[in-house]
Amino acid sequence: MKTTLLHVRRLAVAAALLGAIVSPRAVSAQSALDTSEAGAFMGSWSVSLQSDYGPLEFPLVVTDQGGKVAASVGSPDPAGGLTSVTDITRSGEGLVLNYEFDAQGQLVPVSLTLTPDGEDLAAVFSIADGAFTAGGSAKRASD
């Protein structure tokens, strides 16, 4: 019974992770963070995460909108579209992107923390206030 519950929980968490990435919510605005505070993060990135159900890869674009940082997170499925992120802050050396996704009518909080790692970024994806986390990296996307 414990094994079955553990598998069900892992499946639910994996579904939430996929939902966070695949289910965009369109919001068009920028954050209050000045672009001068996010220079190392600006540009197009390819984020790769490792999960219990294999690797996931999705696009991330961090741009300047009127001197403020704006970001869009994609999904592993190119047809999934982009989610605009407006809650963008700094935490130490990291850039933190917070947004929500709709999981069958319930909004689930998502936090993506990016930290410089040489020419790349270390990435930590946290869903439902830390109920599930996945780590990975981001590399500059080739145009």
Q: Helix and strand layout, with pairings?
A:
Elements: H1 2-22, E1 43-51, E2 54-65, E3 68-73, E4 83-85, E5 87-91, E6 94-103, E7 106-117, E8 120-127, E9 132-140
Antiparallel strand pairs: 1-2, 1-9, 2-3, 3-4, 5-6, 6-7, 7-8, 8-9
Poorly predicted regions: 20-28
Percentage of residues in DSSP E strands: over 45%
Number of helices: 1
> What is the total tally of β strands?
9
Strand order of the largest sheet: 4-3-2-1-9-8-7-6-5
> Which value, in Å, is the CA radius of gyration?
15 Å
Order of helices and strands: HEEEEEEEEE
Shape: globular
State the CATH topology.
Lipocalin
Q: What CATH first level would be assigned?
A: Mainly Beta
Largest sheet: 9 strands, antiparallel
Characterise this structure.
There is one protein chain. The protein has about 140 residues and is mainly beta. The chain has a single domain, classed as Lipocalin. It is about 15% helix and about 50% strand. It is built from one helix and nine strands. It starts with a helix and ends with a strand. About 5% of the residues have low confidence.
